[in-house]
């Protein structure tokens, strides 16, 4: 049986947020105030839809956006980590669950030739329409009250595990690597043998440490990381067990 590695994308694989990074394509590298202020909590995908429409209306073309997105830096040690996983694909299945979008993630994985490392990418579906506007849709509808309307990463993870298990694929443990507030929901459902790996100094890690101070129960172990190289060390330890 393999280990399942679950990756977040923004601020985990890449060292920035692709949705805010893309704003550098806008005139003067910023959004008009009315657009900036139009974000409503929980409705990020709708907001990004308006941002992409604005960029399209301003004449920002696909190749320009692609150049910007593929220039985002990887997080420290991530290239080493993804190469390590590729070399050990017999021991790991690997998925991305991200609130970015399918176009951005495809661009990055294609530019860096890391598509083959990931078995599946779950994210908001995006495409360019006939006007050259990037359009993005909610990944799904769900009823989790803790998560934004477009995506509950826990629902995605549970559905994936169930589907795999129906096909006879079971995992010894899940290792969840992320940084953000939308990684809290899936991480709190991890089981005793699983490992939550929050990025040091980011929202997920701060939330988990607050929860442990409040003695809120969590089953999985927690291993904090700053570099992908530290994640490699922990994975080496897990596969030796
Ligand atoms: Mg993130
Ligand atoms: Zn949720």
UniProtKB/TrEMBL annotation:
Keywords, ordered alphabetically: Hydrolase, Magnesium, Metal-binding
Pfam family, one: Put_Phosphatase
Cofactor: Mg(2+)
Name the UniProt record assigns to this protein: Phosphatase, orphan 2
InterPro entries named in the record: HAD-like_sf, HAD_hydro_PyrdxlP_Pase-like, HAD_sf, Pase_PHOSPHO-typ
Gene this chain is encoded by: PHOSPHO2
Record GO terms (molecular function): metal ion binding; phosphatase activity
Keyword Magnesium: yes
Signal peptide: none
Annotated family: Belongs to the HAD-like hydrolase superfamily. PHOSPHO family.
Binding site for substrate: 19, 99
Source organism per UniProt: Panthera leo
Catalytic residues as annotated in Swiss-Prot or TrEMBL: 8 (nucleophile), 10 (proton donor)
Binding residues for Mg(2+): 8, 10, 179
């Amino acid at each position: 049986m393999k280990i399942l590695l679950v990756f977040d994308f923004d601020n985990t694989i890449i060292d920035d947020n692709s949705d805010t990074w893309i704003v550098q394509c806008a005139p003067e590298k910023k959004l008009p105030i009315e657009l900036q202020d139009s974000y409503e909590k929980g409705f990020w995908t709708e907001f990004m839809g308006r941002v992409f429409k604005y960029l399209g209306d301003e004449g920002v073309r696909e190749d320009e956006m692609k150049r910007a997105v593929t220039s985002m830096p990887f997080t420290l040690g991530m290239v080493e980590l993804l190469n390590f996983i590729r070399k050990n694909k017999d021991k790991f299945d690997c998925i991305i669950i991200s609130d970015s979008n399918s176009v951005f993630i495809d661009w990055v994985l294609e530019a860096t030739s890391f598509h083959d490392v990931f078995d599946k990418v779950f994210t908001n579906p995006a495409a360019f329409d006939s006007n050259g506007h990037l359009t993005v849709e909610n990944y799904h509808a769900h009823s989790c009250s803790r998560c934004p309307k477009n995506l509950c990463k826990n629902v995605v993870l549970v559905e994936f595990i169930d589907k795999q298990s129906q096909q006879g694929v079971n995992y010894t443990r899940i290792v969840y690597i992320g940084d953000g507030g939308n990684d809290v929901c899936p991480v709190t459902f991890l089981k005793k043998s699983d490992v939550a790996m929050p990025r040091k100094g980011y929202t997920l890690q701060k939330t988990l440490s607050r929860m442990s101070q409040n003695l809120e129960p969590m089953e999985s172990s927690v291993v904090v990381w700053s570099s992908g190289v530290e994640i490699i060390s922990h994975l080496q330890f897990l596969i030796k067990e």
